[in-house]
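Re: weekly structure request thread

Next one in the queue (173 aa):
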Amino acid sequence: NPVASEGQWYKSMAELIPEFEKNHIKLEIQAHPNDFIESSNEAAKLIRSLDLDWVSQVWCSAHAFYSDGGVGDVTKEIMDSKDVLTHILIADTLNYKSNFGLRYIINPPEAPVTIHQHLNPGEGEVDFDAMYKALKAIHFDGIVTNNVFAWPDKVDWSNEQTLPGIKKGLGIN
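Done, posted below.
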């Protein structure tokens, strides 16, 4: 229930804000598939509503299609959050809405599951060129994290595939 969940979130924040401020804790909030806020734009609005400079947003490229109902417009998502964005998580995913919603093979069909992938960039359908261009346009200088977890048995290989592309996209030598 998104409305009830949001109300509970504000109630929790009212209790937590004094503790966070007393202990100098910064808070990063992320929209997430199947949470009460799945859209990065709605998460940015929630963050702005607090009007606290120590509360900011994490944006995850692997959630791009969930964030806007299958469009995957990473430029719009980043631009909508540019004033509160401090952390980017990098991973690829397939668009769950493509192929008439049948992008994934699930047996039996219609099984009540959520597919949540964090693939190496290039293994899915996220537009990384547009993402890096948008990050450059807003002069992003926050945290960037390799967020691939599709290959726990090949971590070194996955990192070798991912890290050079992240550095190139960010313009890091």
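The beta strands are 27-30, 55-60, 85-90, 143-146. DSSP finds seven helices and four strands in the chain.
Next request, please.
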